[in-house]
Amino acid sequence: MRLLVTSLLLFALVACTGEATDPAADDASTAEADPGANADADGDASEAAEPDVPADGADPAEEASTEGAEPTEVATVPAGLEGHVRPGAVLPPEPDLADAVRLEVGAPLQDVVDASPAGSTFLLASGVHRAQSVSLRDGDTLVGEPGAVLDGSVVVEGFVADGDVWVASGRTEDPAPHGVMLEGWDNEANPHDLFVDGARQRHVLSRDDVGPGTYWLDYDNDQLVIGTDPTDALVELAVVQVGVTGRGTRDVTVRGVELRHYAVWAQEGAISATETHDWTLVAVRTVDNHGAGVRLGSGTEVHGCWAEGNGQMGVIGWHQEEGDRPMLVTGCHIEGNGVLGFDWTWEAGATKFIDTHGLVFRNNAVLDNTGPGIWFDTMNTDATIVGNEISGNAINGVFYELSSGALVEDNVITDNGAEGGALAAGIFVANSPGVTVRNNTLSGNTNEVVGVQSYHGDEIDIPRLVEDLQVTGNHITLTDGFVGLSVTTDQTFLYEEGNNRFADNDYVLDGCDPCFIWGDFLELGDWQAVGNDLESTFTTVGD
To answer: Measured at the alpha carbon of residue 394, what is the angle toward residues 388 and 398, in degrees to the nearest 5?
Structure first.
């Protein structure tokens, strides 16, 4: 039986060996260049130096839970920002706008910014600022009036009917594919997304494939071919690569701005804090962008966000630098991202964090994303994942791999993993020591809490063992899935010597068979015989 279990999990886990690459290193470009696109790339996260792991016996997750505390001065969510944050989010006080420089609709925004000294405050006027990009400087503050939208698209007109399709000529976009796609979704790797009356259209593989709800960009002949009648419709094509950026800057604040329809590469954000320090994002809304809605930089704090319908991911963050504050994400609503057919085993879903230290992810809603929900992948340390609602994500609810020292506490985690098979769980801990899972409520996930030791490939040289996994005080309803530990390598000593334990949990056994895994699938008596859940409570539905 153990051989069968190992084989099943090994088959599923090989999907997690892909390397992360930074699109900033690519040569491809879109119709509008990122103002900082020539800066050095982050590089492959798997090549960064391994962070130090505390050796004093202290629980790093406990220490991390005090990081990123709420501001001592707070304001309730003001009118006009309700769709920018998770309901009930607490925001920092509003900035002083007495000396703010207005950015009017139709004005060349970057010219106005460049004409003002660094450290200025800018007020983005209500309305749609189309096909604009803003690069901020040290200490700048950008505040949006209610209804202020940065839109990365242009309006396309002049369509001519040609049989069952409509054609607009004179398009000069160049192909710029980036990402690993599912079969049949190859053209969605190009960032030029199309919207008809606000509805996203699918980029198909050829002109012959065009029908209602789809389009094809004929890059060779400068034509846009669509299958939805454009008569009296608003047709928008994403062409601008980034909305707000500022590589190399420090202490920038962006508040109350919506960004949509940006042709941002996968692995980048419409708000891009790449290679920045200690940015603060407050009540930012990012919807229907090509890659990610938001990319955090070192020390970025996010106090309220709404990331929905983005093509690859909602919120991503790479690389925490020494001396910057830990990253923080709180009060965010992250829903329905990963819609463009990116292969999640490459990168797709709600969130992904790489090489962060002390990141706090608190009081967010992570719902119905195509891929993992909260994903910490490679060289993260001391993460705190507390008080979140995590539901309906296609793969794992919480996925912590090749990292160390996390606290996963007081989350409600339901109905995740419908497309993940043996890999999917409400909480999935892979090759990561020092993870504490406590006081969570889990139900309806493909599996509930699973630790795995697996082979991740020689190209990822990060020796991590699933040790000191402490699963305590949780309320777990088991239906079709299980809880436990599976070692798919020859490191089977981790069963007896890894200090991994399940204890003091409250279980509802509602049809699971088997309910537990510890190398083999086990019945309750055998599960307790190896030392798990000796004082836990078990309620069997139907007894």
So the answer is: 35
